[in-house]
């Protein structure tokens, strides 16, 4: 892990170049310090050039079952999948409109569908926006279309 910064890129004697390089050096040191505080591993590629390994978001790479959401721990170090316990009322918002699930049931909103989906083994996908039965599905035989 990097614990100090070295300003070895100061080869030009021009004052404006020195000031510009000094400002860049300070920004680099600040960024490296932030990465160290957040416990992100850095790999040094060359002087002043580092690559961060890993992500700040512990939810990255975590795959939750259908309907579940990633929840980060209070210390920000760990994450777990949780099913929605309750659904907020968004008022007149697209997320608060009724939806039809592929199971043929009406759900008050997407959150309610996710809550039900999380409680099942295979999950429930949305069939379409709006209550079930609002749309009629017609199956048309290929014999009606000339080749």
TrEMBL record:
InterPro entries: Kazal_dom (IPR002350), Kazal_dom_sf (IPR036058), Prot_Inhib_GrowthFact_Antg (IPR050653). One of its GO terms (cellular component) is extracellular region. PROSITE patterns: KAZAL_2 (PS51465). Keywords: Disulfide bond, Membrane, Protease inhibitor, Serine protease inhibitor, Transmembrane, Transmembrane helix. CDD domains: KAZAL_FS. Coiled coil: none annotated. Residues 75-134 form the Kazal-like domain. It holds the Pfam family Kazal_2. GO terms for biological process: cell differentiation. It comes from the Eukaryota. SUPFAM superfamilies: Kazal-type serine protease inhibitors (SSF100895). The chain crosses the membrane at residues 25-43. PANTHER family: FOLLISTATIN, ISOFORM A-RELATED (PTHR10913:SF45), FOLLISTATIN-RELATED (PTHR10913). This is Kazal-like domain-containing protein. It comes from Rhynocoris fuscipes.
């Amino acid at each position: 892990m990097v614990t100090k910064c070295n300003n070895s890129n100061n080869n030009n004697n021009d004052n404006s170049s020195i000031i510009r390089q000094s400002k860049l050096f300070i920004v680099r040191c600040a960024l490296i310090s932030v990465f160290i505080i957040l416990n992100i591993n850095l790999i040094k590629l060359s002087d002043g050039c580092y690559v961060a390994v890993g992500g700040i978001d512990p939810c990255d790479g975590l795959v939750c079952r259908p309907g579940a959401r990633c929840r980060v721990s209070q210390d920000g170090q760990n994450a777990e999948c949780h099913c929605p316990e309750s659904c907020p009322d968004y008022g007149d918002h697209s997320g608060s409109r009724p939806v039809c699930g592929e199971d043929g049931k009406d759900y008050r909103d997407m959150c309610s569908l996710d809550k039900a989906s999380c409680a099942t083994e295979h999950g429930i996908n949305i069939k379409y926006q709006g209550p079930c039965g609002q749309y009629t599905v017609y199956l048309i035989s290929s014999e009606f279309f000339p080749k």
